[in-house]
């Protein structure tokens, strides 16, 4: 995989991670109710699910490319249309990230101690953070659609083990880092209003880039 192709992969992985959805609300909830550590644990459990999706999608598309190139091209076109749809939706957004931050903020309250030991509560919260982070990625069908759209343009470039590893680990690491960033900034309340204020700009920038990437897919088929 060339460095230019990897940069394109990196850009779209960043946009995918930053796109507001239930994953963001889940990380926010565990950060606000369990603290920074629980939020970061939830983030990296979520990223493991993303890595599994990436691996399964890569292997599946590689088989399709080898056995039925025409079908692969069809998947690539559908993927490009999906990216374009995501881009148009992001352009029309009025700040989806802000909405998810608010949703996560109002989810649950912190556990009340007194019915058991503090250690038991901590263990339960830790397991819940890991479980919810992994589940919210594995059981979200939109993630599979996103990877089908994303990887269809990179499978042919992944002609070595290194390239395939980059395709799998890039979204995993980016996802973990992004939600870790969310957990960290939520530990500083003065930063949160700034993120909300820039939410609409982030959405519109993401929309433009997604549409450009969709055009790139169509042109390179």
UniProtKB/TrEMBL annotation:
InterPro entries xrefs: LeuE-type
Name of the molecule in the record: LysE family translocator
Annotated Gene Ontology cellular component terms: plasma membrane
PANTHER family cross-referenced by the UniProt entry: AMINO ACID EFFLUX PERMEASE RHTB FAMILY, ARGININE EXPORTER PROTEIN ARGO
The keyword Membrane appears for this protein: yes
Residues in the signal sequence: 1-25
GO terms of molecular function: amino acid transmembrane transporter activity
Pfam family, any one: LysE
Compartments reported by the entry: Cell membrane
This protein's UniProt keywords: Cell membrane, Membrane, Signal, Transmembrane, Transmembrane helix
Keyword Transmembrane helix tagged: yes
Classification lineage: Bacteria, Pseudomonadati, Pseudomonadota, Gammaproteobacteria, Alteromonadales
Transmembrane segments: 44-64, 71-88, 143-162, 169-187, 199-219
Protein's membrane topology: Multi-pass membrane protein
């Amino acid at each position: 995989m060339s460095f230019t192709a990897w940069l394109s992969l990196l850009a779209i992985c960043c946009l995918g991670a930053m796109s507001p959805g239930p994953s963001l609300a889940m990380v926010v909830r565990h950060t606000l109710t369990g603290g920074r550590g629980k939020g970061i644990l939830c983030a990296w459990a979520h990223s493991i699910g993303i890595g599994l999706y990436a691996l399964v999608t890569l292997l599946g598309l590689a088989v399709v490319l080898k056995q039925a190139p025409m079908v692969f091209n069809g998947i690539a076109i559908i993927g490009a249309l999906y990216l374009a749809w995501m881009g148009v939706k992001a352009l029309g957004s009025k700040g989806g990230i802000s909405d998810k931050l608010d949703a996560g903020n109002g989810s649950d309250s912190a556990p009340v101690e007194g019915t058991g030991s503090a250690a038991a509560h901590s263990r339960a919260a830790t397991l819940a953070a890991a479980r919810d982070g992994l589940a919210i990625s594995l059981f979200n069908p939109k993630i599979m659609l996103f990877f089908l759209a994303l990887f269809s343009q990179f499978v042919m470039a992944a002609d070595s083990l290194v390239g395939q590893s980059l395709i799998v680990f890039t979204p995993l690491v980016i996802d973990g880092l992004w939600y870790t960033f969310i957990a960290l900034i939520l530990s500083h309340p003065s930063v949160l209003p700034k993120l909300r204020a820039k939410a609409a700009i982030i959405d519109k920038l993401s929309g433009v880039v997604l549409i450009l990437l969709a055009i790139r897919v169509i042109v390179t088929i």
